[in-house]
Amino acid sequence: MLLVLSDQEKTSFAFLASLPAQVYPDLVKTALSQLLSSKQNTKVINSAASKLKVEVTSLTTALDVLSQCFINSAKRNLSPEDLTSSLTSCGVEDDITTSLVSSYTDNREILTDVVRRT
């Protein structure tokens, strides 16, 4: 089973692709942290937006999309290969896909627990 992205999610991934590739791991880590703590770290997001010279709302939306991607992947119990195929087929950049799949794989048990609790 593959993950299907909405137009808004595709737009958020396109926004992420416009950012320097070296920030992807930190953004994915922030999205995962936000998901696990059930709240946004406004200070971190504002600081990142300022450094990247982007709108806070655009970055917040992109982080929310990353979090949803984690949750939806865990709900469907996607393998790393299925997640990679899903993101690639939707046109998500390879660097973003690599960071996201790596974090998903590393935190799969935690994400599954989050899904069970919701």
Distance between the termini: 21 Å
User: Helix/strand-derived class?
Assistant: mainly alpha
Query: Helical element count?
Result: 7
- The best one-word shape is globular
Would you count the extended β strands for me? 0
Q: What can be said about the biggest beta sheet? A: none
Strand content: under 5%
Low-confidence parts lasting 5 or more residues at pLDDT below 50? none
Please, what is the average pLDDT? 90
Return the string of H and E elements.
Answer: HHHHHHH
| Rounded Rg | 13 Å
Residues in helix, %? over 70%
Task: Give a written overview of the molecule.
The protein has 118 residues and is mainly alpha-helical. It is built from seven helices and no strands. The chain has helices at residues 7-17, 24-37, 42-52, 56-75, 80-89, 94-106, 108-117. The model has no long low-confidence stretch (mean pLDDT 90).
